[in-house]
Amino acid sequence: MSVSSLARKQIFAGGQAALTFTFRALTTAPTDIKLKKTLISTGAETDMTYTSEYTAAISSDGVGGVVTVSPTISTAYNLTVYRETTNTQSSDYDDYNQFPADTLEEDLDRRTLVEQEIAESIDRSIKLPISNTLTGLTLPNPSDGKTLKWVVSGSTVTMENSTVNIDTAIAAAVAAETAAELAQTGAETAETNAETAETNAEASETAAGLSATTASAQALTATTQAALALTYSNLCITASLLGLNYSYLANTYSTNALTYSNLATTNSLLALNYKNLANTYSTNALTYSNLASTYSTSALTYSNLAATYSTTALSTIQVAINAQTGNYALAASDVNKLVTLDSGGTITLTVPINSTIAIPTGSIIGICQIGAGKITIAPSAGVTVNKEIGLNTTGSYATAALLKTDTDVWLAIGSLEA
Fold first, then answer.
1. pTM for this one?
2. Which of 45, 58, 379, 394 is most solvent-facing, going by the fewest CB within 10 Å?
3. Which domain holds residue 378?
C-alpha cells in the first residue's frame, strides 16, 4: 500500500462500543493499534489492554479500521486511538530467489509508519530554536516541589532544580499577604471604635438634655405600669429560655475571644496612635459619669417600682397547658404553651417541618413528662433539632423546652438525655 497520510491518531468521546478510525496501519499487525483513556476532569491518562479491554480490526487495504471496546468506557473519558508500529524487520531476502514485492512493500511501509510516529512524537516535544547552538543539555533528577531554572556561566549553560520549594514559597507569600490584610483590618477596626466612642459621647450628651422629657414620660399612672409589668413578666419567661440558648452561644464566643485575643496583640500597637484621642474621651467620660450618677438615682426609683409591679404580675400570670396522653405532633397553637404527655410507655413528640406546620421562628414550646413513659423528641425529615446530650426526657416530671431558631432548625434544652 502507499502511505500518503501523516495521521497516526484520532480522539473519540467515551460511551461508544465501536471506534472507526481512518489512518493507515499494517493489515498484518492489529496489535499495533493502541487505545488510551483520558479522564476529562483531570487529564489523567490510562493505557488500555489489548484483548481484555479492546480489539482492533484493520481494513484489507490498510486504510482505517474499527476498534471494539468491551466493556464500554464511561462518557467521563475521552478515548485516543493511535498507531504504534512494532519497530522490527523480520523479512529475510535470499539471493537468486523470486523477488517478493509484497514483502518488500510491507517492510518499506513499516519503516515509513515508524518514521511518521517518531516525527509526530518529536513534534510534541520541547525543542530549542533552530538558531540555538546549545548541545548536550541534560535535565537534573526530579525533586518534589522544586522548579527548573537556567544556569549560565560564560559559554556553559545547564539546568538545575531551584533551592526552594515553590509551593512553600507561594504559601508563605499568601500567609504574609493575609497577615498584612488582617493588620490593615485591625487598624481600620480600631479607628472605627474610636469614632464610635466619640459618637457615644455625643449621644450621652444629648441624652442628658432629654432627661427632663424622659422623666416626665416615665411618670405613668400606677395602673398603666401594672399592666405593662404583667406583659414584662410574661416576656421574662421567654427571656429565661432564651438565656439558656445564649449560654451555649457564650461558649462559642469564648472560643472566638481567644482568637480575638491574639489579634489584640497587633491592635495594641495600633492603639498607641489613639492614645491622645483616648485622653480627650476620658475627660468627656468624667462629665458623663457625673450625669450617670444622677440617672442612677432615678433608675433606683424605677427599679423599686418595677419590683412592686413584677410581684403583682407574678400573682396573676397563667400558662396555657395542652395535655396529651399519646404520641403527638407539635402545632402552631402550642407556641408559648406547656405540652404535657402522660403515658406508661414511651411517647413520641414529633417536630413538624415548616412547609407542613409553619411555626414562627423564635417561638418557644414547653414540654413535660407526666407519667413513667419517657418523651422522645423526633424531628421530621428535613428538620434539625440541636441538643447538648440527647432528645429523651430523664424521668417523671422532667421538663424541657423547644426554641425555633431558624426555618427548620430547633434548639432542645432542659432535662434531656441520650
1. 0.38
2. 45
3. 321-417
